[in-house]
Structure to design on (84 residues):
């Protein structure tokens, strides 16, 4: 797998939305990949909720990663989480 780089915006969104670095990497490595706007790539994968406070309300968290392939690397542009 190519190296994965995180831009500052993605790191801020991860912290804000309770998304772990390991979840983003796993989503890119084995999640579903689909085309996104502006030639970017959208990766998605669903995880069990591990945060004890959020687990009171939700059981699943879908992580969505928006990224670009630049040369032989993947630049993570933004990260979202949808809880259910």
């Amino acid at each position: 797998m190519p190296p994965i780089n995180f831009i500052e915006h993605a790191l801020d969104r991860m912290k804000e939305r309770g998304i772990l670095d390991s979840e983003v990497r796993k989503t890119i490595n084995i999640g579903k990949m689909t085309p996104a706007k502006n030639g970017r790539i959208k990766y998605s994968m669903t995880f069990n909720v591990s945060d004890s406070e959020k687990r009171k309300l939700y059981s699943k968290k879908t992580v969505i990663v928006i990224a670009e392939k630049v040369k032989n690397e993947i630049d993570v542009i933004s990260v979202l989480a949808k809880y259910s």
The first helix runs from residue 8 to 17. Strands lie at 4-6, 32-35, 41-48, 60-70, 73-83.
